[in-house]
Amino acid sequence: MSVERQRCAWGESGNALMQQYHDEEWGRPSHDSRHLFELLSLEIMQAGLSWQTVLNKRSAFKAAFADFDYRQVQQMLPQIPVLLQNTQIIRNRLKVTAIINNAKAIAKLADKGEDFDHYIWAFVNNQPIQHHITNHAEVPNTTDLAKRMSKQMKKDGFSFTGPVVVYSFMQAAGLVNDHETSCFVYQLLVK
């Protein structure tokens, strides 16, 4: 007999990938630089599209972008024409170019001795921000912190990192906990 878990409203879409992403990944603090780069890249790809579309193409993105190894991705500028022919991914030149550019920005940080994980988590003083959302409609699409983070990221060479993309990335990577308070994941994250 399985116990039914209460999830955020969006995690109850009936789509297995969405549910798994909600249950196992979204909002859980990530400190793996490769994973953080992947989440940022996926949020960039999602801009203007549904998250389900991005999740359905996630394995293709991983294959196309060297499993989000920023050292390899930063070298992919000459491959843009090939990537734009890849029907398995979202073929948007601005988004593809931004992912490659962001890999270069992460490499530049690493070359100065700063890990992407440390760079990102410094924006929240290495502590997830615990929001207390009772209804997913209360979740903002951006915040003042996301605006400051976006501005700094752009200054540091990142692209396609506007405040809305940055806030979505913060949610995905667990910098903020925007799970609904009735959600089982929220309960795990506030303990």
From TrEMBL:
SUPFAM superfamilies: DNA-glycosylase. Keywords: Metal-binding, Zinc. The keyword Ubl conjugation does not apply. GO terms for biological process: base-excision repair. Gene3D superfamilies: Hypothetical protein, domain 2 (1.10.340.30). Pfam families: Adenine_glyco. InterPro entries: Adenine_glyco (IPR005019), DNA-3mA_glycosylase (IPR052891), DNA_glycosylase (IPR011257). GO terms for molecular function: DNA-3-methyladenine glycosylase activity; metal ion binding. This is 3-methyladenine DNA glycosylase.
